[in-house]
Structure formats: C-alpha cells, structure tokens
Amino acid sequence: MGKTIIVSNRLPVKIIHEDDSFYYMPSEGGLATGLSSIYKEDDNLWVGWPGQSIKKEDEKLQIRTDLKQENMIPVFLTKKLIENFYEGFSNDTIWPIFHYFLQYANFDHDLFDAYVEANRIFCDAVVEVAADDDTICIHDYQLLLLPQMVRKKLPNVGIGFFQHIPFPSYEVFRMIPWRKKILRGMLGADLIGFHTYDDMRHFLSSVSRLVGIPNSRGRIETANRIIEVDSFPMGIDYQKYAITAASPKTIDKEIKFRSSLGNQKLIISIDRLDYSKGLPGRLEAFEQFLIKYPEFQEKVSIIMVVVPSRDNVPQYRELKESVDLLVGRINGRFGKLNWTPVHYFYRSFELESLSAFCRMAHVALVTPMRDGMNLVCKEFIASKLDKTGVLILSEMAGASKELSDAILINPNNSEQMVDAIYKALTMPEEEQILHISIMQETLKRYNIHHWVSMFTTRLNHILTLQKSMATKLFDEKTALQIADKYKKSSHRMLFLDYDGTLMGFHPDPQSAKPDNVLISMLKKLSQNEKNRVIIISGRDRSTLDQWLGHMNIDIIAEHGVWLKEKSGSWETITKLKSSWKSEIKPMLDAYVNRTPGSFIEEKDHSLVWHFRRVETGLGELRSRELTSHLKYLSTGKNLQVLEGDMVVEVKNADVNKGNAAQKWLDAYKHDFVIAFGDDWTDEDTFKAMPEEAFTVKVGNTSSAAKYNVPAVKEVRSFLTVLAGI
User: Fold this and answer.
1) How far is Cα 644 from Cα 631, in angstroms, rounded to an integer?
2) Closest to 36 (Cα-Cα) out of 64, 70, 62, 10
C-alpha cells in the first residue's frame, strides 16, 4: 500500500515573511484539522499553494526544505496566475455559478486558460512525488480539472475528489462555456464526494446530459473504470470547540463582553464577507423584527461579525457598503444611549472570542442564500455547554440536512425569518435543551474525523472493487496467444453475444440485422467441424431464427429462455410462467406515453423498454424511475430487472445467459472456450465459463471477463482471423 497525497489549493499553513525569514502558522480550518492525522503519518504528503507569491529561487528552496519536514509540498504560482486562476476563474466564474449568483459570473477565456495552467502546475507537482500504488485525495472547486490530468499521467493511481461548495443544477451548470471539460476533469477521480445528496444528484444529471454517460445507483461507468459518486456531510472537530468553550480564557472573555453589553438577549451572526451569505437580508429581517415586535426593542441586540474577504472586488465592495448602510440605518433608527441594536465588527476574532460570543448568544442566525455545508452553525452548537440556545438555519445550507432540530427558514422569506427570530427568543428553556441535545449528539457522532474516515473507507472500497473487476486489454500479443491455442485445439466452443458484440447498436433494433461480412464470417466458423458456435442473445427467438437460423450454429435467445441446437427445434430449460406480464406491461405503457421515442419490445418471457431514441438525459431519468418501480413491483414475483445499453428489461429470474451456456459446457467436450459480450447481461456468461476459458468484454473494462476490447470492429476482426485458421 502506497502513501496518501492530499491536494488542495492552499496548504494547511500560512506563511509569514518578515525580516528575510519565513514563519509558518497552522491553519484553523476544518479541512486542515480533519486531515492532519493523515498527512503527518509515514510518507504521506500535502500538496498546495503556500499562500505567497515567491519569486526568488533561494527562497523557494528554503520553503520547500522547511515544509518537507512537515510532509508538505509547496506549489509556487506567479502573482498574475494567482489573480487569473484563483481570484479570476475560481472566484469570478465557478463560485458565483455554483452558488446561483449568475449575474456575477465572468466568462473570460483568458481566465479559463489560467485555470487550466494552474491545474497543470498542480498536476506536475503531484506526479513528481506520486507512484502507481499511491492514493491521491483532491479537494475543491479550484482543482476541478486536476483528477483527469493526474489520471492521464498516472492511469493506475487511486484518486478521490471532494467538492466543498454546492454543485448547481444542470440548467445552471450548462451555462458555463467549458462545462464538458470541467465534468471530464472531475471524472478522472474514482470517488467523487459532495456534502449533500442534492449536490450529488445535480452532478450526476449534468454528467448524463452533457457528457452522455449514464449512471446507476450513484455509479458512473466510463470506458475503463467504475466511478462512485456519493454524499459525505462534513463535520467539525467537536471536542476542540467544546473544550475551547470551557477554557478559562474563553470564560474570561465572556465575562468581559457581558459587562460591556449589559442585560441583553443576544443574537450572533458570524460570516465572512460574501454575497452567498445573505448578510443584507439578515439585517433587514432583524429590522423588521424590531418593527413587528417593538417590545423587544432595548432588550435584544445582534452581534454581527463579518470577516473581511476580497473587498477590492466591486461586488464585495458594494456588499460591504450595503451592510454598512443597513447597520447605520438600524442603529440610527432604533438605538439609544444605553442600547445598540447591531454590534458590527468588520474584522477577524481569535477562536476564544468567537467561542465567548457563542456561549453568550441566545440565538445563532445562520442564513446563507446558498452554502455547501456551513460549519459556523455546527461550531455554535458545540459551544453550547449548558445546552441552551436556538439555531436559526437556512434550508439552503448543506448543514440543514443534518440539523433538522434547528428552526429552518427560507432566506428569501423575510417574514418567515422575522417569525423565526421571535420563536427563538421566546422558546422555553426545556425545549431549547431538547433540540440542542439532539443536535449535539449528531455532531459528536458525525464529526470531522468520521467524515475523513468515511471518505477514505469508501475510496478504498471502490478501488478494491475496480481491481476485482479489472480486465486486461485484448492486445496483439494476447490475440496471437489465443489464436495459437485455438489452432492446437480440436473441440472448440465460441459463445458470441449479438448486439453490441457482433453488431453495433441501431435506434431501431430490427434494423441491426447481420450484414454480409458477418454472415460470411459466421459461416466459415460454423462450417469448421472442430467448432461449435453459440449465439447467445437477449433478442427474441423469431428474429434470431430469421437472421441466423439457416446456418450451422446453436442459438440461445431471450437471455436463455429459448435454446436451439444447430438444425434442431426450439426448447426451454424449464417451464416458465408469463402471467406477471399483465401487471408489469401497463407500467411500461405508461412510461412510453410519458417518454417520446421510447417503445416496448415483448418477448415470450420478458418485456423490454427501449429508450435509445429518447432525448439525452430524459431517457436516463425515466429509466432510473422505471427501474426503481419495477424492482418494487417485482418483489416476491421471482422476476429480475436488468439495465442494459439503453434498455430496461424485466424477465423471469430463473433464467440467464450463464445457466444456458452451462448446458452446452456440460453436454459437449471442449478443449478451447471463448466468450464475447458487451453488457451486464453477459456477466452471467463470463462467470459460467471454466477457468481456462478466454472471456472478452466489449467496451467497459469493469467486468468478470479476463480481457476487454474497445469496440465491435475488434471482435469481428479477431473472429475473422480465427475463421481463416
């Protein structure tokens, strides 16, 4: 097992340059805290930008040397590149789009070029220290292209990617000119994580509709890998905030603050300056609260801490001016000599001061317009050692999915926010304790360490699954070895799937009949007395008989329901009932009515819903719905639901291609066996083959097969070679 390499835009330290010397201050962010136990172990590393634009080579060398002792690898970027990559594309394009502030998005090709260049520089830094058996964990929206870049350089390495901000809906994401490049960049990872199921769902929808790759139960099957997509809500270091809240330094600060503020009920608001945080709406709601409930005037104040951020950017500068004006208006309108409605601080505070504010506050007002998670609300809950207090939380924050005992509000509904403030300030203490206790138990269990463990465990799981289903490329050397074995054998069995293996797919299934080249090749193979050619297909027996019945071949139809040996007649392995069709077919009809371009194919013992001609995206959406409904309906009915290439099929569970193939293997002598197939229905065939058999999957290399080929033409080319031997 190799090392773990963490990659993020920033390293978990801040570099301070004073008097020709460098000082390193640890970051206090949740990510740095959670991953500290990983990157400091053994040979593990953290790769990232050190936070300063360093020009001198001797200074770069010193920083590299200093940080290497702490298991960190710095990535150096020029000042201009930082402006265009980080301040530019990352924060002026991705950030507003992903937070649904489309009006602020800047679609500048030069900024995107800088984004690509920065990701390449990160890639070079990773490749320089990585090996094939390493695991690379990449974090956040600044590095969306990095997974695929690393994958191209290190195809066998394990890659996890976690997105810490929201992922927008398809309708919003599609507005980005470089949308496909971004998605393909992310798809270089083996595991892609988000905070919430909604973000995961939006991403899968965009992949399906923009890149054309379907998914099933959170898994995406690319040409050579299975990619898992899942939600992993990020927690906090609960003990850290609870211990800080109990520290003497924090309590001293609380006493000092309380003596300054007097006997007031306090509302705490802590955020950095950003338009996604809903700061103006928060202040306006507080103003409306004082108007609607005048009895609370002179009895309640809000402590608003706004941490400076990008205030040189026009939108942020305007936001700060808006906040300043609102604070001034509220304090000017309602303030008294002995009462200030809004205590406004435009600066950072040390952790103990923030903890003291949380201890004192009766209410935390956390109302972002859109937030991937939001850890401030969790830190507030962890700081409430006496379990009193109320959290008002925006339902647009990812944390709202976990903290359902908070008062959840729509940040666009000012009346709801006003009423929530009133409810919070008047809530009985026993009710406060009940809600806080429940949320604290949730946060203790699902803390930052749980999040790290959950993500890394899942990444290891998907990597193990990939290895178990890995196949080798059916290259020229392999083809020669198999052809030599074929030449030396006397009793050969060739199991050949039809659609997607011998013939490419067609929008109209009945138009995919064999061409003259295929018929000629099959005739040559089947006329060789040493060969037994078995076509094993999901198609109905009538069609297969019409197309192939005149040749000296065996046919298995409808996934193994019907069997026919050479010039013999059709028979079944077992007696099957089809009474279930009357219950299932109306549902399929309903989906045809709802989905233009889809149609039903009825076979003797199965029903197939085709959606190859349906609008991209809609077909995949409907197929997932239909599959879910069919699996529910088929419970207890001995039915199997199969998801094939642009089809959903429901059939009797007693039959599959593997069982049918086994009949031939048991009945006839063989010293050479080869099986070709292309989709999940052929996995049963591969699994039924003897250990010495050659099994080949067309397309996706995640399979029980031993080998894979890219497409149909390679299968036909190889079989043509065998036909001539």
Assistant:
1) 15
2) 70
Tell which residue, 322, 314, 308, 343, has the closest CA to residue 279.
Answer: 322
Summarize pLDDT for 70-125 with one digit per residue, the tens.
Answer: 899 999 999 999 999 999 999 999 999 999 999 999 999 999 999 999 999 999 99
Helix ranges restricted to H, 197-313: 197-206, 238-246, 248-261, 279-292
Number of CB atoms found within 10 A of residue 387's CB? 15
Burial (0-12, 13-18, 19+ Cβ within 10 Å), 376: buried
> Are 92 and 107 spatial neighbours (Cβ–Cβ below 8 Å)?
no
Non-local (6+) Cβ contacts of 420 within 8 A are 392, 407, 409
User: Strand order in 606-610's β-sheet?
Assistant: 599-602, 606-610, 647-652, 639-643
Q: What is the DSSP letter of 140?
A: S
Quick check: 526 and 533 in contact, CB under 8 A?
Answer: yes
Which are the contacts of 205, defined by CB distance < 8 A and separation ≥ 6?
169, 170, 617, 621
Per-residue pLDDT tens over the stretch 136-159: 999 999 999 999 999 999 998 999
Per the CB < 8 A criterion, the answer to whether 387 and 421 are in contact is no
For residues 283-316, one letter each, b for 16 or more C-beta atoms within 10 angstroms of the residue's C-beta and e for the rest, the string is bbbbbebbeebeebebebbbbbbbeeebeeeeeb
Contact 653, 606 (CB under 8 A): no
Please report, for residues 10, 48, 49, 384, 606, the alpha-carbon distance to residue 14 in angstroms, rounded to integers and kept in the order given: 9, 11, 10, 30, 63
Element (H, E) at 440: helix 429-445
- The residue behind tokens 């939380």 is 393
DSSP 55-120: --HHHHHHHHHHHHTTTEEE----HHHHIIIIIIIIIIIIHHHHTT-GGG----HHHHHHHHHHHH
Q: How far is CA 530 from the centre of its chain?
A: 50
Burial class (CB in 10 A: 0-12, 13-18, 19+), 723: middle
Write down the catalytic residue from 199, 271, 497, 678. 497
Indicate the length of the chain as a whole number. 725
Our answer to whether residue 497 is catalytic in this structure is yes
- Residue 268 in this model has a pLDDT that exceeds 80: yes
> Which helix (H) or strand (E) segment is 521 a member of?
helix 516-527
Tokens 């203490």 found at: 429
In this prediction, residue 474 has a pLDDT band, given cuts at 50, 70 and 90, of: confident
Count Cβ atoms below 10 Å from residue 46 Cβ, excluding itself: 26
